[in-house]
Design goal:
The structure is a single chain. The chain is of the alpha/beta class. Helix content is about 45%, strand content about 15%. A 6-stranded parallel beta sheet has the order 3-2-1-4-5-6, sandwiched between helices. The chain binds uridine-5'-diphosphate-xylopyranose (2 copies). The site of one uridine-5'-diphosphate-xylopyranose has 23 residues, from helix 5.
């Protein structure tokens, strides 16, 4: 069997690497239009940082896993084609700000139809609005040269930072297909592929639209939990309750569960906001105003949490951060990834720059180039203007020297065990810490002399 995956991104790359690793007799070709990304996949420095991914790629690459830009050739030879290109929120025209931009997906469909010389199974891996498979099918058939295409939906549930483990031992694999003889046969071939390493009872099969909608709903439910606990964090700060204690008490109820109840400066990542906005767009499209409003509020809460964090910093630091040096610990949207898409750090840094702060940003995996590109997009400021106010600094102790404050944006494990006394000694006083992830040892820092402000925790008692 030959598989081709269009899109060597955070989803396509790791997913295909695990399939190739688990199925040595299946040839897996990952194609991408971006030559430098392909080169990176073929090098020792992969474009995606994921714990455990290097080893999986090393085992399979060159054996039955290949990364290439030869899109047409690989489409032509494949039995199954995964489409895993990005589907950003539309920035123009109808549905701007909500709907998914499907132009890359449509281009893929046209290309597949154009170059295919035989029947193919096309699998949507990208998260797409409900009924996209239908559009894919129409584009494929309208341009088909007489060949048959079966379209399956196989949404990805991996979370970045734990992608390899999520792919190797998924809670479930979901495959949506048509209830026709050829649709059932295509679906069965994908079920058989996953069944080589996933227990059969964890492979769920549904109709195509249920599969598409399940992905949007799963992400909306997860994001909703984060927004719920973040709403709670504000109330805890106002009343003196402790957000971790309340989340623990509520999460101990097995009906609620413990996961996804960690208060944060805001959820990020390429999926949550995009998928909720998709759901909102879908509800609006069907005239369902209240359901649309309901989901919209999850995103509104997240935006509020990020701006509230900046406001608390400014208010606490005597109503101004102008000209003050602030060390930003972490820029990725969560730990164990080099991905910064929709990271809360981008909005917090933009907010602080709007207040004329000076930023020293440290992240163990995100390159300076990415940080500047994100901030250019978010602030509209040029690289030169930003460079006069922002420094990317690999060393935490350099970044915190003479700083007025530290803001923890990402829960990287190494931030928990820094030499905090050394940091305190070289900072301006009062030495403020704003913990947006609830990860640093607050009591120990307070004992050293820091003024610690953490989400959902009471403000420190200040000496008169
Ligand atoms: C994935 C999913 O596809 C997206 O729908 C989901 O919601 C988030 O995760 P991801 O793998 O994270 O996207 O995207 P990205 O890392 O941007 O990778 C997409 C790749 O597709 C890029 O390398 C891009 O160069 C490639 N691409 C895009 C093509 O090869 N052809 C195209 O026409 C468009
Ligand atoms: C998510 C889904 O979990 C995954 O199933 C889907 O395939 C893609 O979208 P991802 O965005 O990679 O995965 O990471 P996730 O672990 O879900 O975290 C999303 C955001 O929520 C991060 O910014 C994270 O820091 C934040 N979060 C998560 C919290 O703030 N608190 C929590 O308790 C959990």
């Amino acid at each position: 069997m030959k598989i081709c995956c269009i899109g060597a991104g955070y989803v396509g790359g790791p997913t295909m690497a695990v399939i190739a690793d688990r199925c040595p007799d299946v040839t897996v070709n990952v194609v991408d239009m971006n030559q430098s990304r392909v080169d990176a996949w073929n090098s020792d420095s992969l474009p995606v940082y994921e714990p455990g991914l290097d080893a999986v790629v090393k085992r399979a690459r060159g054996r039955n896993l290949f990364f290439t830009c030869e899109i047409d050739q690989q489409i032509e030879q494949a039995d199954i084609i995964f489409v895993s290109v990005n589907t950003p929120t539309k920035t123009y025209g109808i549905g701007a700000g909500f709907a998914a931009d499907l132009s890359f997906v449509e281009l893929c469909a046209r290309r597949i139809a154009q170059v295919a010389r035989g029947n193919k199974t096309v699998v949507e891996k990208s998260t797409l609005p409900v009924r996209t498979a239908e559009s894919l099918r129409r584009v494929l058939h309208a341009n088909s040269n007489g060949y048959r295409f079966e379209v399956l939906s196989n949404p990805e549930f991996l979370a970045e930072g734990t992608a390899v483990a999520d792919l190797e031992q998924p809670d479930r694999v979901l495959i949506g297909g048509d209830d026709t003889p050829t649709g059932r046969a295509a679906l069965q071939s994908l079920v058989d592929l996953y069944a080589r390493w996933v227990p059969r009872e964890r492979i769920l099969t549904t109709n195509v639209w249920s599969s598409e909608l399940s992905k949007l709903f799963s992400n909306a439910m997860l994001a909703q939990r984060v927004s719920s606990v973040n709403a709670l964090s504000a109330l805890c700060e106002a009343t003196g309750a402790d957000v971790d204690e309340v989340a623990n008490a509520a999460g101990s109820d097995s009906r609620i569960g413990r996961k996804f109840l960690k208060a944060s400066v805001g959820f990020g990542g390429s999926c949550f906001q995009k998928d909720i906005l998709n759901l909102v767009y879908l509800c609006d499209h069907y005239g369902l105003r209240e359901p649309a409003e309901y989901w919209r509020q999850v995103v509104a809460m997240n935006d509020w949490q990020k701006s509230r964090f900046v406001k608390r910093m400014v208010d606490t630091m005597f109503n101004t951060v102008s000209g003050k040096r602030i060390a930003i610990l972490g820029f990725a949207f969560k730990k164990d990834t080099n991905d910064t898409r929709a990271s809360a750090a981008i909005d917090v840094c933009s907010g602080l720059l709007a207040e004329n702060a000076e930023l020293f940003i440290v992240d163990p995996k995100v390159p300076a180039e990415t940080i500047f590109a994100d901030l250019e997009r978010a602030t509209g400021k040029s690289r030169d203007v930003l460079a006069s106010r922002v420094r990317c600094e690999p060393d935490v102790y350099q970044a915190t020297r003479d700083a007025h404050a530290i803001a923890v944006m990402t829960e990287w494990t190494q931030f928990k065990t820094l030499e905090f006394q050394r940091i305190y000694d070289q900072m301006q006083k009062p030495a403020f810490v704003f913990d947006g992830r609830g990860i640093i040892p607050h009591a120990a820092l307070t004992a050293i002399g820091f003024e610690v402000y953490a989400l959902g925790k009471p403000a420190p008692a200040l000496a008169q």
